[in-house]
Sequence to fold (173 residues):
Amino acid sequence: YKVIINGNGGEKMLKIIRKELNISIISSIIYIILGIIIVLNPETTLNIVSTTISVLAIIYGMIMTIINIANIREEGNLIFGILLVVMGIALLIYPNSLNVLISLGIGIWFISSSVSRIKFAVLLKDIKELNWLIVLISAIITLLIGISFIFTPLSSAVALTTASAILMIVYSI
Fold:
């Protein structure tokens, strides 16, 4: 350590370390502020994300459509471009639909994962493994969470957003 600091380039190394530390502190503060804003307004955050994705889909879809029609490049896919524009417009009209789709996808994933773990718990029980009950209970809890995501997708999206924001704050601290 002393060789690096006292040797050639030691001052330069300290400046680089200080600069990186300052950037890290500033980004942590920004993430904490952003996390607090998201925790206080999760529904607004979801709507902003949905609107942003909508606008980007419309723009990208229009670019793909124009490229295909103008035949600038053969890579443009007319049908995909039109579908992106339609999807973007639909998301602008129904901004919660993206939240519902994400929650449904996560719910299905949780359910399928928990079914596999329930099967695994039964196998563990058959070979007289002592921890089979813990695996079974955690799988049932995961199954119930997955079911709740499917039946309450908007509330689940808000809960996911809030939990993500809390994790962002904790990580930044």
User: Anything to note?
Assistant: The CA atoms of residues 5 and 106 lie 50 Å apart. The radius of gyration is 24 Å.
